[in-house]
Model the fold of this input.
Amino acid sequence: MSALLQGQSLCSHRHICLHSRRLQWPCARTAGTACCRRRGLKVNAVGWDPEGILSQPKGGHIQRRTMTKQIAEDQQLADQVEKERLKAREELHKKREARKTPGSHAQLIDYFMTTEQEEMSFEVSRCRPLITDDFFKFLTDQISEQRFASNSSEDRIAELEGLEQYLKEGITAVDAAAKDMAAPAERMRALLSAPDKKAALLDLAGDNQIDKPLLDLLQQNIDAARSAGQEQPAMFMEKIKAAAQRYRLNA
Done:
């Protein structure tokens, strides 16, 4: 200990520091060794932090995670709904294709009588070429025969009269719809065959001809292409429809 007090050199790495609350003994010094001090370490604020490691935490991370999760779940739900819609449409398409078109007036009457109510409008549209004046004459004769038959059925007469009224109203609506769709169909053909689709869309938008019938017709063709397994044409027409919606002037 006297060596310490007299300043004699000890090992430059092994020196003794004695501390107490009231008394401190200086350690021996060598030529390049500073005196040891057991003091509290103080860290000043660090201002240089290029990677932002020490930046203040941002709030709202729970809300952002919740929103991200909700968006992902909504997208999954939308994909599932679209998948189910396409599946149901494909099944309906197969069901319609399985039905054979009647070949006579009597068969056409039975065909309509056995068609489901929700499919009647479609079948009237599909069988429109068969619903002629001769067919209506045949249907009227069938109603008259039922009225004067010995075993006439009031229910059968009511069914035939109801069918007659429904078909008359149905073909009127079908003919009007066909007339209304003639112009959109022509616009759609011109759009799909145009070498410059953007220029064609701008021309249609300038004439205010991008309307709901045109968009509905595009969607019908998209669904028909997908039902037929033609995915690339369906995707192509989807892009055309999306672009047309952006250029549409009236909602």
